[in-house]
Structures are given as C-alpha cells and as structure tokens.
Amino acid sequence: MIAGIEVVNNSGGITTHFRGIKPSAVKWSQSVKNFADTCSISLPLTPYLTNTGKNKTIFSSSATPPSDTVFHTGDNVEVWLGYNYDRHCFFKGFIRRINYAQPLVLECEGYSYCLKDVMFTRSYKNTTIRGVLEDLTAGTDIKLSEYIPDVKLKNLTFKNVPGRNVLEWFQRECLCAVYFEADILYVGASRYAIPHPTHKLRIGWNTVEDKELKKDDTETKLSINLLQKSPKGEVKRTKSEQRKYDNIKEVKVRAGLPESFLKSVREELQKQEDYKGYKGTITAFLMPFFGKGDVCQIIDERFPERGGKYFVENIDGSFDDKGGRQKLSLIYYGNDRE
Q1: Whose C-alpha in 66, 85, 273, 313 is 20 to 30 A from the C-alpha of 223?
Q2: 120 & 18 share domain
Q3: 127 in the same domain as 16
Q4: Same domain, 206 and 329
Q5: What is the pLDDT of residues 4-62, one digit of tens each?
Q6: How many contiguous H segments (helices) and E segments (strands) does the chain have?
Q7: pLDDT for 247-291, tens place per residue?
Q8: Is pLDDT at 85 greater than 50 in this prediction?
Q9: Could you tell me the CATH number of the domain that includes residue 306?
Q10: Distance CA 87, CA 85 (A)
Q11: Residues 79 and 9 grouped into a single domain
Q12: 4-25 CB burial, b ≥16 within 10 A, e <16
C-alpha cells in the first residue's frame, strides 16, 4: 500500500513543496449533500517541528514563524493513496487548523475553505446562478462546473454575507444541490446532473462489509408542492402534473425562479420522497477509487436482487497501519441505468 501527502506552503512569499510525507493515519469525508469536504491527517510530531532549541529536522530550514511546525493554516494539501503504485487523489484542499499534539493532526477542508474570508456584497436586478457564483469566487482558486444550469435570478441583494453563507442561500432559498468536486463547484437542481464513471464491487471479493445495504419498503405517500410567496403576498405553487397522493407536503422556495427549473427541483424532491429499494452503506478497500456522485455497480451472487447500479451519495474514508477503507453511502439506480 502506498500513502503520501503533498503540502504546498506559500508563506512569506516563498512557495515550498513538501512531497512524499508519510501519514500515520488519514480520515476524509465528502458528500453530495454537503459542500464542505473534510480530512484529518495524523503525522509524527517531531520530524515536522521548526528548528527551535534541540529540534533540528530535515524540514527545519523551510519552516517560518510564527508556526511551530513547517505547516501553516491555508497550505494546500493533497492526499494520495493506492496499491502497487496505482495512486489516486482522495482529498484536495487546505489546512484549516493544526492540532499541536502527538501525533500532529492537520485538520483540512476542501475548496469551500477559499470562501472563509469572503464577505459578499452585491445587488442584481437580473443575473443567473453562474453570474452570482462568478462574482463570489472571483480571486479564488475555485472553478465553476460546466454543468451549472442557465437559471435566471431577479432582484437579489447580498450585503456583507460570508462566502459560505451564499452557498447555503442557494441550498435553502433555491433548493439547489451544492457541492465541490475537488476545486470545481456545482450548483443546480439535481445532484445527478454531472456524468460520472462506473466502478464495480463484487460482494465478498473486493468488499469488507455489506450488512447495512438494505431494502427500504417505506411508503410515505406524499405529493411534493413547491410554495412561492412574493413580496406582495402573492402565492404560487408548483405541483405535479399528475397528482399522485392526497397528502401534500409544501416546501418553500424563492419566488421568481423559472418554471422549468422549479419543475426539475420538484421532481428531484419527489423522487427522494417516493424512493423504495435498496440503499445504505457498504465498506470497500481503497480500490477501486470512488468519488462522490460516481456509480457503483454491485455484483452479489448470494442475493442477486441487490445487484445493479447505485449512486454514491457520501464517502467516509480512512487509512492507517491496518489498511485503507472506503465506506460508501449508496442509493439504488437500477439494473438498466447506463
């Protein structure tokens, strides 16, 4: 097994690369439901202390005050793991906090970290989702996904709003899916909008545990309506073209969004409400490598009905001296999905 951390230190106007750092343990988490990817990296403390007193290390000359280690908050971090020199980048982001202990712990955050110091003030009479995001991310290392839909927005005002809170506004007010894939930000009606690769898992062969992958037969029998209320008090509802259930669940959404976009959002929420089938978690080794939004094709010879393609909603990964694991949260797509 191969494990390596790469850190780029930009302190003092000097860029320093630390490559081939061997972690003692790594934990990471990412989800299509959450735009803040996280990672915790544990390292032996002594080799990375600054050159103070008796602490003379191979990295001492690169360390700069005021840090007690060669690492600094804001440093770029990449975590590469794999087998037999087949490596993948499991996390890409920045050091958010340093826990000075034994072992040394680097607490990291994905590219949402770039928005931590952004205070956003803008007014728009007419704009789009992409237009707001271009202004929000200007001057950062964040790239925008090509799959962000062309959705028009009217009469928006942001006054000294923290950058991350703008992303939360899209989640709360527009009911958008908002997440990063490394340094690429996606905001849109559906978390299924971006094409992803398919990876195969054969139960009992390249999996560790599968007992939490279960069939959900729960029927809520709720129809989802989107409720818009204008500043003038006018109420508008986006309903299903064919009413499926008598029980209604109304979800508030910002007024003035295009009808086609609202229909896509409503269909996404209804799909989640109606879901019946297999879902849950499965634990695999580090390979094949999974990213959030990927498709996991399950092959199960013991229980063939569990076989098929699943959407990877969340990934909780870990690596230590016992090996590496990926705990995948899955929801069933079906056998015929391409």
Answers
A1: 313
A2: no
A3: no
A4: yes
A5: 666 665 554 445 556 667 888 999 999 999 999 999 999 888 777 765 434 444 343 44
A6: 3, 22
A7: 888 899 998 899 999 999 998 898 888 888 899 999 999 999 999
A8: yes
A9: 2.40.30.150
A10: 6
A11: yes
A12: ebbbebebeeeebebeebebeb
Backbone angles phi, psi at 277, to 5 degrees: 150, -170
Under 8 Å between Cβ of 219 and 244: no
Question: What pLDDT, in 10s, does the model give residues 191-245?
Answer: 999 999 999 999 999 999 999 999 988 777 888 888 887 776 677 888 777 666 7
Whether residues 262 and 151 share a domain: the answer is no
Any bridge partners for residue 26, and if so which? Answer: 41, 319
Structural domain count, the chain: 4
Q: What is the CA radius of gyration of the chain?
A: 23
DSSP string, 277-298: EEEEEEEE-S-S---TT-EEEE
Within a domain: residue 193?
no
d(C-alpha 88, C-alpha 91), whole Å: 9
The span from the CA of 236 to the CA of 171, in Å, is: 20
Expressed as residue numbers, the domain containing 74 is: 2-109
Query: What angle, 0 to 180 degrees and rounded to 10, lies between the N-to-C axes of helices 129-137 and 163-173?
Result: 160
74 and 102 co-located in one domain: yes
Q: List Cβ neighbours of 284 (8 Å cut-off, separation of 6 or more).
A: 201, 206, 207, 208, 290, 325, 326, 328
pLDDT of 187 above 60: yes
**CA–CA separation, 28 vs 317, rounded Å?**
5
Q: Does 203 share its domain with 328?
A: yes
**Token pair for residue 39?**
């990672």
Are residues 155 and 61 both part of a single domain? no
Summarize pLDDT for 283-329 with one digit per residue, the tens.
999 999 999 999 999 999 999 999 999 999 999 999 988 889 999 99
pLDDT at residue number 105: 92
116: helix, strand or coil: coil
Cα gap 212→216, rounded to integer Å:
11
Strand duo 177-181 + 184-188: pairing: antiparallel
Q: What's phi and psi for 333, nearest 5 deg? A: -90, -50
Last residue of a domain, one of 85, 109, 133: 109
